[in-house]
Write a structure and sequence with these properties.
The protein has 260 residues and is α+β, with helices and mostly antiparallel strands. The protein is globular, with a radius of gyration of 17 Å.
Length: 260
Amino acid sequence: MSFHRCVALVSVLGYALALAGCAGAVSRPPLHTAPAPVPSHLEWVGGPVDFRKLTAIVIARRSAWMHERQIGSQVGSQIGSAFVIVRREGRRVEGFVVTNEHVVGDAQDITVRFADGRAYPHCQVLSVDLRHDLAVLGLPDGSPPFEYGLIPASRPPAELQTVVASGFPLIGREPSFQVTEGNVSNASAHAPWSGELFIQHTAPMAEGSSGGPLTSARGELLGVNTGGLRDREGAYFAVPVDAVERAVRRAFEVRAGFDN
């Protein structure tokens, strides 16, 4: 689904959500959207917060055949943002890349690229939550790209709390790293396109920012940026981190199934 088609889709519903960085089919497991408990023996692996290092570029490619079947799709590459999360269960450590479903939906091939130049082609979608616009990707060999990733905040954000949005919005045709600052304007906003609770904030986003992390000023993960309202300045939305935890838990289970 292209950026313009995403905007058109929510416009039909009577809302002007401007989803940044839409992209569009790699094979994926069945959708799992029901909440699942995250057991205590699954640990988040964290380290020094480096937004430029832990934020990634997602390149989703689709074919000309897909373009003919989907109105508004674009042949070639669509670009969004993502970030690294690492989980440990006993001696087993897995690295995942979290992004928006609308960034990778219907892509024929997905590449994840980092600021240091490393690129991972043929990434697989391990977990999807359509209602929260989430997708969790696995790197080809399952190894974490780094020894650690972002760590979820221990408590939900408070209104007026300072937040930081990181991503790779486009400058011309090329993604360029950007980090912006804002505040939480509504900690539990009902998203008009899904009815789920999202975080509404004022940290500026642009096309290509979708899928990047929303964090506290200290770098604690609060959510995943997904888009903003076209007709309202300073109104951007992020998926809350509890939905991210559930999606990553499912990806961990799927990866374990592949390994067995």
